[in-house]
Amino acid sequence: MNEMIILSQINYLKNVVQLLGCCLEVDVPMLVYEFIPNGTLNSFLHESQLPISLETRLRICTESATALAHLHSQTVRPILHGDVKSANILLDRNYMAKVSDFGTSKFLSMDVTQFATYVQGTLGYLDPEFLQNSRLTDKSDVYSFGVVILELITRKKAVYYDGNNERICLAQQFVSAMRQNNTISIFDMDIATEDNLELLAEVSKLAEECLRPSGEERPTMTRVVQKLTGFMTRLEAIGDPNAAQEHSAEPIQIFMASPTPSHDADTAALLNTYP
């Protein structure tokens, strides 16, 4: 019921999955959504070997951010998504992003703070502030979106295993690389061309702002959209050499994402991201 109520307020947004109907005459209410043929962003990034241009990545990023910004600041009552991650961003037949899964979403109160009595969200994307004080705010969504930005520019999962079978938290790895001025080491080499490096550095800076330990220091989603729109304008001006290769590829078959690793180790990694 919560998801139906939330979606009834935002069903007009093109970058939110559309609720077509519902059935309440059963023990468990059933919701009917539009069919999204190209699956999740998680699968698009991590289960396909085909190239994805920087232009496409930034467009998907901007579309997703636009939906979240609308939830936070352009509805009658601000809405907290509560589980922002690449698996909850769907791609339609034109690979346009649609934010989905509002089962844990909440209307924000006037002080834009919610308290949770259990872990809400997905580890690897969880706001470290929430893990410490159980407070959920719009800036919790911003933190999670920062991890999605990292996935888009690195093509690595939020939590993954390296060649030594060691579990890596992408946010922690990124912060370490930023401190060493070595973010190029974790960029996806398909997009880390000489022409793109300056822009990728600015996208990385935006991700770093989203991942700051204090929610008060993070940008709003509206500010994130403004930054991403500027990046898109610049990219269009210089052109993206990988776009033609991507557009000539065969249609991509997308499958569901793999299960999330266990929580305990991820929680420790998140809490250790910053000193």
List the helices and strands and how they pair.
Elements: H1 2-10, E1 19-23, E2 30-33, H2 41-46, H3 54-73, E3 79-80, E4 89-91, E5 97-99, E6 106-107, E7 114-115, H4 128-133, E8 135-136, H5 138-154, E9 159-161, E10 167-169, H6 170-179, H7 197-210, H8 221-238, H9 243-247, H10 263-271
Antiparallel strand pairs: 1-2, 3-6, 4-5, 7-8, 9-10
Structure description:
By secondary structure, this protein is α+β, with helices and mostly antiparallel strands. The chain has one domain: Transferase(Phosphotransferase), domain 1 (Orthogonal Bundle). It is built from ten helices and ten strands. The chain has helices at 2-10, 41-46, 54-73, 128-133, 138-154, 170-179, 197-210, 221-238, 243-247, 263-271; strands at residues 19-23, 30-33, 79-80, 89-91, 97-99, 106-107, 114-115, 135-136, 159-161, 167-169. It has a two-stranded antiparallel sheet. A two-stranded antiparallel sheet has the order 3-6. Strands 4-5 form a two-stranded antiparallel sheet. A hairpin with a 5-residue loop joins β4 (89-91) and β5. α3 runs antiparallel to α5 (138-154) and α5 (138-154) runs antiparallel to α7. The longest helix has 20 residues, at 54-73. The radius of gyration is 18 Å and the shape is globular. Residues 247-271 have low confidence and may be disordered.
- The CATH topology assignment is Transferase(Phosphotransferase), domain 1
Tally the beta strands.
10
The overall pLDDT, averaged over residues, is 85
What is the distance, rounded to the nearest whole angstrom, between the alpha carbons of the first and last residues? Answer: 40 Å
The Cα radius of gyration reads 18 Å
Bin the strand percentage: 5-15%
Spatial strand arrangement across the major sheet: 1-2
